[in-house]
Amino acid sequence: MLAPMQMISRWFCMRAFFDAVPYCNGARPALLIGLFLVALAGYGHEQHTLVNEKTIDATGEISGFPSHQNHVTKQPGNDAVLLGVAGAERQDHPCFMEFTWSRRNDTEHRTFTTSWRNDPCDNDESEDNSFESTRLVQQDGRFGISSLRVCNNSNSNKRLKGVEIRQIREIRESGPVSTKLAVEGDYLRPNCAVWDKASDCDLGEIAVGVNVYFDDEGATGLELICAAAELERALVSGPITEAVDPGVQHQSALSGYAGQRTARVMVGTGVELPNPPLRHYGITSIALIEHNNRPCQIKLFGRALDWRNTQESRMLGELTLERCGNLPVWADALTPSLAEESGDLYLVAAEVVCNSSNRNNDRIKGLKLLGGRIDDTGNIVRIDGNNADVQPPGNCGDFSRSVEVQCRDSDIGIRFAVAVGLEMHHTDDAFTGFRLICRNVTIDDYPGLQQDSEGF
Fold this sequence. Notes:
The protein is mainly β. It has helices spanning 4-13, 277-280; strands at 47-51, 57-58, 63-64, 71-74, 80-90, 93-104, 109-117, 132-136, 143-152, 160-172, 175-179, 183-184, 187-188, 194-195, 199-200, 205-215, 218-233, 235-241, 255-256, 261-266, 281-291, 294-304, 314-320, 333-334, 345-356, 364-374, 380-390, 396-398, 404-406, 418-427, 430-439, 441-447. The strands form 7 sheets. Strands 1, 2, 3, 4, 16 and 17 form a 6-stranded antiparallel beta sheet that branches. Strands 9, 10, 11, 13, 14 and 15 form a 6-stranded antiparallel beta sheet that branches. The model is unreliable at 1-6 and 8-44 (pLDDT under 50).
């Protein structure tokens, strides 16, 4: 995953946004500065696979030959999901079977096996070199078997000589759904003659057990025991912003000039994020882009507040004023970033360094960001630095409204808070100033973060 400044640099250099920009040839080397990632072991974002015990039932479809006088049930329970089937023979008798399971719940996370054996198998099945195995490639508790079939020697000789996984399902928060078959290994013996019909789980279910049917010559058939299941994100403890009541505003003072109108750009404005935007993310970088000398587009970059496991940075929000138009090849931008200081800083204060020297328009021509580090108690410690970017002298000329504004605790104003958005003031489709929109931070339990193609 790209660091914030690398992300901004690539954004400026990709034709998907607009054609070649002078910054790509080195005019703004700061754009190429990478994020210093701090690699620490942090809180896990593990997921639980939970089986609905009320739905557990055998399919009633036996693949192979039934022997109702001789069958044994292998069903570990406690949210175990079937991942694979193996077997071995002795004297051409399929007298040993082994089943691989995954259990991922709030008490344990592990993969394990259970087995069945019958005469003439003893405790060592390996001496015949007859061990065969097939199982899912992915064994992290998010996938399970939903269909398998067996191969027998012949109609007269019912010995089990092969097992094939026919279908798997991905377990999601909404339940199991069919997905691409991904298995490893072949369970196939030389005397496999007849493949029987499959034993299938109902739609939306996966295998949580197996009935093994056998006679005096060994295993003859398998029947899946199935159930509904769902993925539950485990609770983890870490930084999260405090929710606010509807209509409550928590804003800083104004830096720069008040405009004729205001518009908000928040974390989650104009982008899709995999987690609740205003609870889990903080701003680390800003890109303020000009068109016809008007700063009229703003993009927010940042990452999840629980940065110990989520160093990935991404665009968090964007806002373009109505008459901004298509950004031309000569568009200019301000790109201050806290990522140049450290990988764990979030925006807690900012400043319009200067406005246009033409006092008739008051357009923003310089920005400065100031960061804070979240400690283990949720307190934010401000880290001073010079994370500023300004337009050339002559454009950046009015310093009279250069005022630092801060995110402070919404109740008593002693503690720092994090910025989750900006209220942008604008006149004639050009930004003139802003207020920070803030949220308090606390340490609390929350469901482990979800990911998409860009990360958390």
